[in-house]
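Input.
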Amino acid sequence: MRNVREVKTPTKYVTIFHYTEKHPIYIILHGLLFAFAKYFPSFSAKRGLIRLSGMKVGEHVMISPCILDPIRPDLVELGDYSIIGWDTLILTHEIVRGRMRIGSVKIGKNVTLGARSIVLPGVKIGDNAIIAAGSLVNKDIPNNAKVGGIPAKKIRLKWIKN
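Output.
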C-alpha cells in the first residue's frame, strides 16, 4: 500500500504558489536544475547535479532523460546500480480534488525502470525489480519482481528464468 499524507490546500485552485511546505523559489530552482540535467551527456555529472536538489542518488545509477518531481525531490531515493529509463516520471506529489498528497519514493538497488514508466508517490520498489516500459507503479513492488502494465502487475518473462 502506498504511504502518502494529505495536505489541505487553501483553495480548490491548487498552484505551486499555494503550496506551503517549500518556498516557490526552491521549486522553480529545482525545476531549472532538472531541466539542465535532463539532457546532460555524462551520467556521473548528471548524478551530481541531481544530488544538489537533495535527492538521494546511489552509486553508478544511470538516469536517462526523465521527469523528476521538483516539488519535493528530497523524498526520492534511488538505489545503487539502478537504471531509470527514458521519459520515466517519478512523482512525490499528486493533486486530487483540491488536496495534495505527498509521499516518498524509494527505488531499491539494481532496479530497471523501463521507458515512459510512471512511479506514483508513496511507492517502494524492491531490489532487483524490473519494471516494464509504459507501466504505472501505484503500489509497492517486492524484491526480484518483474512487473508491467497499467497498473503494474506481476508478469512472467519467457527469456528470464523465474
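The chain has two helices and 17 strands.
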